Amino acid sequence: MGLAVKxxxxxxxxxxxxxxxxxxxxxxxxxxWTGHRNLGPTARFWLQRHDMFRELGGAxxxxxxxxREQVIDLGQFRVWFVPRLNFFLTQLxxxxxxxxxxxxxxxxxxxxxxxxxxxxxxGDHEVIHRDLQAxxxxxxxxxxxxxxxxxxxxxxxxxxxxxxxxxxERLLRRLxxxxxxxxxxxxxxxxxxxxxxxxx
Length: 200
Hints:
Blueprint: H1 23-27, H2 41-68, H3 74-110, H4 115-148, H5 155-193, H6 195-198
């Protein structure tokens, strides 16, 4: 007789929400979300923000790859990259703070059975916040070192680039998992109760 596999809540190892948080998702799977009458303006805007973070994160990653392969020069890269990275980091941090302080408390009160799901998501936010700080710090070093090196791939600049790449990859991987789980918990709840019914 084998040992039962204990569910994990760790952002790096989980493969979706625990079973007890997926009951509404079984009733409202993703393929019914778009056309559902209860998918209101707040939910649509929120999903659009998630899509924007995914797309911009992917674009930043692609731009870094082009710079490292010297497809674009450092000057062009910096002009495009710096404002978009700053926007990505500040907007994502603000998005999570609004969720933690405004939306999650409303959802927790609406259904006590799902309340621990929002504790899970808030825990994700703490992990991702540390990732945001690591990305900001490593990006700053990377840009400084490549600037000092005149854009040439010296050892110090290369190490700084690799440190940023590692931090960014970790953030984006965790963010994708977190956003999917967050959507799988919240959107079915909205479809079940409606936005006015939840008070959002």
